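Example (one chain per record):
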Amino acid sequence: MPPVSVANFVDQVRSGTALASFPTDTVPALAARPDQGDRIYAAKARPADKPLILMGASWDDLHSYIQGDDAAVTTWQTMADRYWPGALTLVLPASEQVPVAMNPLQTGTVGIRVPAHPLARHLLAQTGPLATTSVNRSGQPALEDMTAIATQFPELLTLSAAAIADLQATLGEFSMQASGVPSTVIAWRESEWAVLRQGSVQVEKIEDSGA
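Predicted structure:
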């Protein structure tokens, strides 16, 4: 699919007519509207027991997708405020707003994250939260640059070079090359955090924070 303008990108993603890819602070995202998550599973041949991550531009954009009592939500937001934008995914109890297409086995949880990448947040602020995962066939390494993504996944919607240049002029310089290090994933279980995957955010720092 030919690269497009920002307006075209946002329109197609919001309408659910296209799967898309954009850079983040970890690895590039394969993204779709949350209720279109089944298309991500098909594109990647992804097993149903691996839920997608809901990525948004801010905590405010994501909090309606989770549910808990006031004390728990305050604890979760404190963690988000400390590490977001950043490479930390929080796995929390899901609200009814989370589509089945994001988590086919309906485990009752959802992973949420705000990436530390200005381009990603700029797009997410306009599309709304998106179901995301890495760009790769299931079981293969994540693709780390947009050229490789366009070659192996030509059906994905991406931004044109002109659109990226315009955004760099507006948002400031940003890298199109991902770090290649996945996010750290922690889950809220029995009123405490459990580490599911160690990534670029060090678990020791989370524990030392008193969270």
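Caption: The two ends are 44 Å apart (CA to CA).
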